[in-house]
Amino acid sequence: MFPKSFHIKPILGLLPYIIGIVALGLIPPLTGSTYLAYLVGLAIVLAIFAMGFNLLFGYTGLLSFGHAAYFGAGCYAFAMLMKYYHIQSFELLFLGSVIIATLTAAVIGYVCVRYIKIYFSLLTLAFGQVEYALVVKLYNITGGTDGIRVMMPTLLGFTFKDKGFFVTWPFYYYILAIFTICVIVLWIILNSHFGKILQAIRDNDVRVNFLGVSERRYKWYAFILSGVFCGVAGALFAPLNGHIGPEHVYWGFSATPLFIALIGGHRVFLGPIIGSFIYVLVRHYVTAFTIYWELFFGAIVILFTLLFPYGVCGGISLWLARRMKSAKTSL
Amino acid sequence: MFEAYPAYILNGLLYASLLFLLSSGLNVVLGVLKILNLAHGSFYVLGAYLTTSFVALFVATGLPIYLVYTQILVAAAVAGIIGFLFEPTLLRPIYKREESYQLLLTFGILLVLSDVTKIVWGLGAKVAPEPFKLLGSFTIGGIPFPYYNLLVIAVGFVVFLMLWFFFAKTRTGKIIRATATNREVTTSLGVNVPRIFTLVFVFGCFLGGLAGALAVPMQSIFPGLAMEMLILSFVIVVIGGMGSLEGAFIGSIIVGIARSFGIVYFPEIELAILFIIMIIVLLVRPQGLFGRRE
């Protein structure tokens, strides 16, 4: 098992999260920059996406290569509900998109969890590509490769005119609030009996079956929960970005949460969150000087896989644990 | 309507031949190294791009034009050599690690190769029509069918026979099968297992490159093809069974024919048909048609 990082007391353990969220909340009043608010908002949305992905990868031991399918389902559900049903309320759209993303994950997950390891990974990839092919081919309703423009929804009944103001202030805090809820919910899930069973499945699924727990059913539940988080992220992303397209369903986009979880540390709770900020920052600077960011990210994936398999957060907490001579260190 | 069937079947076999070369490469690596090479489709794309460059160079030299077919083999060999760059350096350290790390590593290679092909050959579609034009075509059921495509079908079939002979009858083939069955025992019998692994990986990349090299005279090549081909060859591996040569052969024919008819009758959901076949096989016979239960 992974060492329990450096939580000396539960309250002390919560402190970094509170400081972090307060610090994020201070960004708009301190800088007033729309672009920075957009980037941080994006990092938060991708953090939710990666947290959902990592519920399967880091905690259940299932590596999915098709998570863009559920994120994309959230995005497209949001855009299409708005475009064809003329719903303006963000809350209703959000609810609808999360439900649709969850249902997508439930159906695909039902088939995928029957298979293990590489079969699981490639089946998720295959389903993701089917969804991508559908999005591209049914262009008269999905907009094909052009995608769909997403207008500003109303938040709690208030209408907004200025996109810059919308992203910098009300929607930024909306995202932050949902993010906080997601972090708390995920924390509760992972520390519940349910979460412990998932981690037991990751460590040894045969023994879990011997204990009389249906490993397959729990994997399915984890898959569905993962889909919920992806749907939340997708529904937040659509109005934040203002435009969605098939690239958000494509396999290349499924690599994003994987990359985030890997650099942040997939065995640490904070990993995907830190990883997401690193990702947005690195991508921001890399795309500024080259269009070949895949080459750069591929090299980082190889480097981290070979040398730092526990990511930045895992590496730091291992190092701290060693410094503190924590007795429980065993990898 | 039925007079077009022979042409559809030939098209299906053509497709099956390419898919067999590709998926047998993936399957051999999977069976022996127990690693699913997510970058396998990239070797198909590499083989194809290398062929476009080599054919263009060859035509420029003005050597006898019938020798242009050698360039296909040269391109496949270069793809194999590129595979050789990865195995001892990147793959070897992670054989003992968890499976997800092995997938991650090959995924990283996929990302790198995808951009490398974009840097070297650009984003536009590339073609190498000379080997294709040279042979002309004949008419079957009112539909013209090129002789080059017949050649590709023949190559696929010959490679299948050669692989079967290699694994069943030759000493090296038997050693490779023994390594696939039990690494430790084979090592204790004095076989240099790391060398076998390198050999098999390079061979797998060669087969992937050969498929791409044979395909490029018929169709244009673009970078996004890597993932499409990887998924198709994975579908075949699932249908046929992991590590089974016959499985790859039969699976390729099923997928090739299904796709050929699917494009004609259900063009919108042609890809979905393949996945439906795959899901049916997974539900009825999870180990694949020719696979063994572990």
Derived from helix and strand composition plus strand pairing, the structural class of chain A reads mainly alpha
The radius of gyration computed from the alpha-carbon positions of chain A, rounded to a whole number of angstroms, is 20 Å
Mean pLDDT of chain A, as a whole number? 88
Which residues of chain A sit in consecutive blocks of at least 5 with pLDDT less than 50? 1-8
Number of helices of chain A: 16
What oligomeric state do the depicted chains represent? heterodimer
Strand content of chain B: under 5%
Name the helix and strand elements of chain A from N-terminus to C-terminus, one letter apiece.
HHHHHHHEHHHHHEHHHH
How does the major sheet of chain A shape up?
2 strands, antiparallel
Distance between the termini of chain B: 45 Å
Structural class of the helix and strand makeup of chain B?
mainly alpha
| Percentage beta strand of chain A | under 5%
Contiguous low-pLDDT stretches of chain B (5 residues minimum) are: none
State the shape of chain B.
globular
Q: Helical residue percent of chain B?
A: over 70%
What is the CATH top level name of chain A?
Mainly Alpha
Strand order in the largest sheet of chain A: 1-2
